[in-house]
Each structure stands twice: as C-alpha cells, then as structure tokens.
C-alpha cells in the first residue's frame, strides 16, 4: 500500500507541475484560455491510470490498440483516447473502447470506424484528422492538400463527428512553423464547416510552440507519468 501511496504522490506532483507549466505558457502566449491536458499513459500499468482517476483525471490517451483495449476493460469509468496509428482491421475494436480517435488519415479507416460504431451500437465517435505536414504518409497522416477531401468524407459518415486536426511535427522540422500552418488549416476548415475545430498538438518536447500556436489539446506523457517502466 505504501508503494501505491508513493506512486500517487508522484503522479499528483507530475500533474501539478504540468498544469502549472501549461498555464504559464498559455499566459506568456497571451491566450485567454488554457489547452485541455490529455495524459499519455502508454506502457504504464492500469494501476497508474486508476490512481490518475483518483486524482480527478477522466481522460487519458493510448497509442496501441491491444494495450488500450485491455486497460479500458479493466477501467470502465475512464475515457481512453486513441492517438496512435490504427490499422483498418483493428477499427472494429477501436470503435468499441475509444472515446475519440486522433489519428484518422484515410477514407478506408474512416469508413471502417463508422461501421465499427454501428457494430458496437454506441454513440457518435469523435475523430481528428492526422495531418502529415511534410506529406510523408509512412508515419501516418494525410498530406495537407488531402485534408479537405477527407473532412468531407467524415462529415458524410453518420457515426463520426469531426472535432479537428492532429499533427506531430516531423523530426528535424521547425515545430512552431508546423503548428502555425496546421492551426491555419484547422481554422480554414472550421470556416468551411461553419463550426470551430480543435487542434490536437503538442507533447512534452514542443509544448511551448504548440501552445503559442493555439493548440486546443496537449498530449503529455513523461512529464506526468515519469519514465516508462522497464520490461
């Protein structure tokens, strides 16, 4: 029990520190709002996520379908968001446990998720289009020029709701320039769809640039959870 108490204190400290940093960066950027914090819990045990729940966290993000599914089954009161790549053949599973999917990048995946929601007989699934800023779709994402077309496809699918765009800056890129350009793309798409859309961008390493560029959701793992457990 002592270990669980220690871990709870560690997580509480990580959360407090991360929230304070986000608020400070938002203030420095002249923002009147503070981005939503989505703790990334991949590779960490369900026990850690249960402790986050005790600390008032309701939503966490995962990268791998199988790991996320097992945790979601163990912790039905927590909302799990999928931020990693989704294979089309896994869409049926993802549609059952995911509270949202941040990595939709093909028509095929969107259609499969839409069908998965039907099969699961659940409510609408919120999704984000993942943008591949440099057009190298091997790492996931749709090239910027393909975003509008994919957005229209999602709009026409009855079980999906497009919430915004997600981006991870390519290595060696200028993160600020990537975030600013995808923020502009998000706003332009929002004008076309006649509703505000969110940008999901920013992790521990590039938090300041993402917040300055107007991200609505930041995804932080190590700052809250600490180093990945070994093994």
Automatic annotation (TrEMBL):
Required co-factor(s) are: pyridoxal 5'-phosphate
Keyword hit for Metal-binding: no
Which PROSITE patterns did the record assign?
A: UPF0001
InterPro entries per record: Ala_racemase_N, PLP-binding_barrel, PyrdxlP_homeostasis
Which GO MF terms are attached to this record? pyridoxal phosphate binding
The answer to keyword Protein transport applying to this record is no
Q: Where is the Alanine racemase N-terminal domain?
A: 22-229
Which UniProt keyword terms apply here? Pyridoxal phosphate
Q: Which Pfam families match?
A: Ala_racemase_N (PF01168)
Q: Which domain of life is it from?
A: Bacteria
Q: Which residues carry this modification: N6-(pyridoxal phosphate)lysine?
A: 42
> What is the stated purpose of this protein?
Pyridoxal 5'-phosphate (PLP)-binding protein, which is involved in PLP homeostasis.
Q: Which family does it belong to?
A: Belongs to the pyridoxal phosphate-binding protein YggS/PROSC family.
Record protein name field? Pyridoxal phosphate homeostasis protein
Supply the source organism for this entry: Corynebacterium stationis
